[in-house]
Write a structure and sequence with these properties.
The protein is mainly α and 197 residues long. The protein contains 9 helices and no strands. It has helices at residues 11-25, 32-39, 43-49, 53-76, 83-104, 106-118, 120-144, 152-162, 180-195. The model has no long low-confidence stretch (mean pLDDT 90).
Length: 197
Amino acid sequence: MPSPAAEPLTPERILETTEEVLRRFGPTKATVVDVARALGVSHGSVYRHFPSKAALREAVTDRWLAKSVVMLEKIASAPAEPAPSKLEAWLEALFEAKRHKAGDDPELFATYTVLLAENSGVVDTHLTELINQLTRIIAEGVAAGTLAAPDAAAAARAVFDATGRFHDPQYVADWLSPTIITEFEAVIALLIRGLRP
């Protein structure tokens, strides 16, 4: 088996290793030197790909958030699905993805919550991508006559804001409630009913 340093040093490999280092040490103690040590390279090698610790943390945050964008895009782009069903599936997938991230790896989720607060530009871009997906779904429904909204972008923002309890990390404690699924379903049903023509 080759040593870690024998493998090519790529940005993706650095990001994967950084995630492991963050999981092990947490966001306040993890350093670029820790990442370099785990990779079996000098910290200068890491800096050749990411010019600063902040840039590395921003890239890790962006990579983590991009996974949900890609997964949700598959739902938003589904050609044959009626918009109301697509909207419900999209919101459910977002909620489930967040719940799984929080429940499957709570240490890493807590780490990312800290990183999200540091990287407001990355977060803003992520939120814009999500709201754009919702806008497309709602606009598609308006065009098909299955949803009604005078302004698809404003409706998308309202839907996103109204469901914040089910995807915003500040509500992670609520996601453990035994009634959370019922509460989620009630909110989604109300929103979709409100968007019907």
